[in-house]
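I am writing to request your help with a piece of structural work I have in hand. Thank you for your consideration; the sequence and its tokens are set out here:
=====
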Amino acid sequence: MGIGRQDWIEAGYQELARGGERGLAITALAARLRVTKGSFYWHFKDRGELTRALLDRWAYERTDEMLGLALGSTADPRERLRRIQALGREVAPIDRAMRLWAQHDPAAEDAVRHADRTLLKQITACLDDLGFAPDDARLRALMMLRTWVGGYLVPAPFDEPGPSAERTLDILLSRTEP
């Protein structure tokens, strides 16, 4: 069985997670897949076409696909939040690379914004189901996303372990009034 377009895209994600957007060299991808560069050009016109495919897949297919797998059929909104939080830890290397890429590339920024909107809708729906007022649900969803993303962008100080995922969720779901 030969190497297909999706194999190149998945290899691209692995290289992106490992070395960032600059690591998306055709030679490195070919070495990872153990094929010649000619195989790449069978599936893509150039590196730009590959990067567009990576961004499109991340923004549309992969975000929905991964959320669908993570959430499954559970109706419990707190469990759905736990699963979204766990998914964030699982995809942290690629998500970090995508966010760094988005800082200097408008197409990457669009892909990250689309993925974030999708994720924020899911988180907000969970908070709605937990009985938060709509404005509070939207604000808390944004705080959760920023907290979870910040968790892998900002390491714990002084090599101390950060709070557990469950404790973080407890704090973010706290109903104390300011």
Remarks:
- Residues 47-71 form the longest helix (25 residues).
